[in-house]
Amino acid sequence: MDDMVYFRKLEYQNEAYEALCKRCGVCCGATTSDPCSNLKKRADGTCECGIYDTRHGIQVSASGGMFACVNIREVVAGGADYPGCPYCGNGY
Predict the structure, then answer these.
(1) I need a labelling partner for 33 at 20 to 30 A (CA). Which of 4, 7, 27, 56 fits?
(2) Residue 41: CB atoms within 10 Å
(3) Res 72: pLDDT
(4) What is the pLDDT of residue 90?
(5) What is the DSSP string of 10-75?
């Protein structure tokens, strides 16, 4: 398989995986006392990341704490389990 075909396949797989995200914010602390400062409330009361496409890297929590926002695959692989999260296999 040539490199371009391989990289296109990887890109497609990543897009399909990212499409699973409901952008609820649970993995970003939306249900805790110190969520990520980039979470934005929707009209229906749920949350979403205001910088979703550029979220990876150092971010700031609501209280000013710093943390590294990482790919959800890394979080789930580390054993995190968010009820209702399609990444964790719990469905919505």
Answers:
(1) 56
(2) 11
(3) 76
(4) 53
(5) HHHHHHHHHTT-----GGGTTTSSS-BTTEEE-TTS-EEETTGGG--EEEEBTTS-EEEE--HHHH
Q: What is the pLDDT of residue 92?
A: 40
| Amino acid found at 12 | Y
Measured distance CA(69)–CA(60) in Å, rounded: 9
Q: Which amino acid is at 49?
A: C
User: In this structure, which amino acid lies at residue 51?
Assistant: I
What pLDDT score does 1 carry?
60
**Angle (nearest 5°) at CA 69 between 63 and 73:** 140
pTM over 0.90: no
